[in-house]
Amino acid sequence: MKHILFLLILSVNFCFGQSIYNWDNSHSNLKGFEYKNHFDLKGNIKEVLITKIETFYNRKDSSFITYTDAEKILFNKKGYLTHEYFLNKNKDYFLWEYNEYKNDTLLIYKKERSHYKTSPPTDKIHLKEEKYTYNKNNHLLTKYIRSSYQEKFFINERNTYNEQGLLIKSEFLNNHVTINNYGVCLGDGFSLNDMTHSFVYGHNIVQEKAVFDKNFRKKETQIKNDLDDYSSYYIPYHNHKFISDRNNNTIQINMDYLRIGDDYKSSIVFYKYDSKNRVLESLWKTKKGNISGSFYEYEEVNDTLKRKMKGYIQTKYGMKTLLKTLSSITEYNTDGSFKVTDYSTSQINEIEHYNKYKDLIQTTDRYNNILSETKYTYDSNQNWTQKIVFENGKITENIIRKIEYY
Question: Tell me: the pLDDT tens digits for 262-273?
């Protein structure tokens, strides 16, 4: 719900991110950024140490190597990140991120450093801290934030539940407060404003009303810590009604907006599922009858998925006929490996091959005429300990890491 204005920023965390995160395997990131699956790690991980990162730049006139400092990440026994360290210029490890959990799973405290280039430059260490509280059902109640700009924590998110444990109100507060050292979050009347979402439940129906604050530009530096100080703070923004029809495996969302174009002011979104609860279609129908969305098709052999096709659906301007455009085909093998073929204007644009460990091993970029290949060395838990990347036959990256288990 909260958005940040994107500036031309260089983040150290981004530079190191390539060393361990496997962004190609985003399907494994089911439990959040702090969980081991985000790093594509298997087994009872205790520590991951990146000992070497070599990046090779191959040019016609010269070739040179750059080295990235080491990185160390610690996990608890439930697989959640507790400490992240980097090496400084003196070859000493400094703490970049620290997390505390309730029962080793619920995040209750987080501290992280922020090292962005600023103008004018400064050596000040910028810290951001977060605290979380939960109810007896372990549902999030409140989120508090404090950065180097504040002495005390202030409320940023608050949730309310009914007796059945269903979320009935979610509030996002103090979004205008500066918590980063590269800019001030000024409200734009849409994405950065304080918001509250209310939910009403009925038989196969959930109605959501979202409203936002229109005035906080005038009080952009004021922090509201009083939890009761948000009573008459908002004006209506949008109204959604989720209608579920399990007999036809469809979900319908009626959407009414107050501040966007007339064609989208009152629209309907449809989701259609198959008998295995997989999405078949997601369609957005506007007030004028224009339709856009996505479609999915599945092919199985002996109840095993062998092929999945994905594409886009839209109505051409002035026509009622739905046009389907293929965007990708994923083909699965019995050993767990698979191939993804991406299309652009009905032509093959890129082909990706993944091995049985779900690691990307080859990419054929037909548009740029580039063949990328990756070779891995694995340990007994199927985690790679060395990763070497080649581009058109020339090495571009070499990463070595040590993994310790509980």
Answer: 665 788 889 999
